[in-house]
Specification:
single chain, 387 residues, alpha/beta, 13 helices
Length: 387
């Protein structure tokens, strides 16, 4: 009985750990570059910025976008605001549309409203940027040109930045780098399509016009990417285009992390395995790898479950004398950990200093209430992070 339990625990964990290691291994090097010179650079590009009570930073956001994308139009959707977000955005030079509909809250509804506004004079390409984000110089042009060249959505790398970050924030920033850069590259190489991150994503207008945007889904970007994959439209990734946002203090970010991770876990539990099997049946690498990607839990949760699983396998070994489950699980854990260390060495040392690596167990402990909350108070509503 205890040996069967050890296998029941270790096999899915080993599968997730091995796939994580593979994604990391193939995502360590940059993707091939595309210059997009074959596309007319005079196409109209609109940067769509959904904003809910962003008066503290909307002026800086609009000014930064005007500086890094001077030829793009900027449309700010002041969505269910009770502050002066709209007035400040106009003063900064953006076009503003105000949406007041308390019965339908969420970023998806704001994006759909923005699309309705743009339909009066549609641009050639739309780039969605969150109101607290910054686009690197030249990234808007790269994203728009690539979206127009291939007729597919294009996602920029999406990273967190912070000055003098606390150790736990530094660990969080590193986890974001792993997810939104290294693993995103790996997913693109393995399956031909990446995930959407909700910000720094570009669409040609014909595709944007038919997206199912009007939803209160708490993880609308994840759901949208899966919808596109099922339509046979893989998400492109331009890892040289970059969108960044300032990391929130640890004490302010628990609700935001709960929303995203609870949404990811709900989606993974209901769609991960079916999507992987559908991809195998349809011989679609994109669907199969996306489904497999969903079966890998968030990094902190995977490490926590792996430690528990290895403890169960070790107990089974002592009790029965059969050490194969522990050997299999330990090998998978060592492989994934080694790839994480290689990724940290290549990309993460500036984000996560060596001394802060020792704080990773504390970060995992800090996230335990989030995972417990998935069963006790599942976070399904959109919420804004205080920065």
């Amino acid at each position: 009985m205890i040996l069967s339990l050890a296998w029941l625990v270790m096999l899915p964990l080993a599968f997730s750990l091995v796939y994580l290691g593979i994604e990391l291994a193939v995502g360590l090097s940059p993707l091939p570059d595309e210059d997009g010179t074959c596309i007319d650079r005079q196409r109209r590009v609109t940067i769509l910025v959904p904003a809910h009570n962003e008066s503290a930073g909307i002026t800086q956001t609009v000014s930064a976008l005007k500086a890094t994308a001077p030829t793009a139009e900027i449309l700010v959707i002041a969505d269910n605001c009770d502050d002066d977000t709209a007035a400040l955005a106009r003063q900064a030079g953006a076009t503003v549309a105000v949406r007041d509909d308390p019965s339908r809250r969420g970023k998806g509804y704001a994006l759909a409203f923005g699309r309705d506004v743009l339909e009066q004079a549609p641009p050639d390409a739309v780039i969605v940027i969150d109101a607290d984000c910054r686009l690197a110089q030249g990234s808007a042009e790269r994203l728009a040109l690539r979206a127009l060249a291939h007729g597919r959505p294009v996602q920029a790398s999406n990273l967190l930045t912070s000055d003098q970050a606390s150790p736990l924030v530094a660990v969080s920033n590193f986890a974001m780098l792993i997810k939104n850069l290294v693993r995103a590259r790996g997913l693109k190489r393995l399956g031909g399509g990446a995930m959407l991150f909700g910000t720094g994503m570009a669409f040609g207008w014909p595709l944007f016009a038919r997206l199912p945007l009007a939803t209160g889904d708490a993880v609308e970007d994840l759901s949208l990417g899966l919808w596109l994959a099922r339509q046979g439209v893989p998400v492109d990734l331009d890892d040289r285009a970059q969108v960044t946002s300032s990391a929130a203090p640890v004490e302010s970010s628990r609700a935001q992390r709960s929303r995203w991770e609870h949404g990811f876990l709900r989606t993974a539990a209901t769609k991960g395995l079916p999507l992987m099997l559908e991809g195998i049946v349809r011989r679609s690498r994109n669907l199969a790898t996306l489904g497999t990607h969903l079966l890998v839990p968030p990094l902190a949760l995977l490490m926590l479950l792996s430690i528990i699983g290895l403890a169960i396998a070790a107990a089974a070994g002592f009790w029965t004398g059969h050490w194969i489950p522990l050997t299999v699980g330990g090998s998978a854990f060592a492989f994934a950990s080694a790839m994480l260390l290689v990724a940290w060495w290549r990309y993460g040392r500036a984000v996560l200093p060596f001394a802060d690596l020792l704080r990773i167990p504390l970060y995992i402990i800090w996230k335990v209430p989030i995972y417990i909350g998935f069963f006790t108070r599942n976070q399904k509503d959109w919420n804004r992070t205080q920065r």
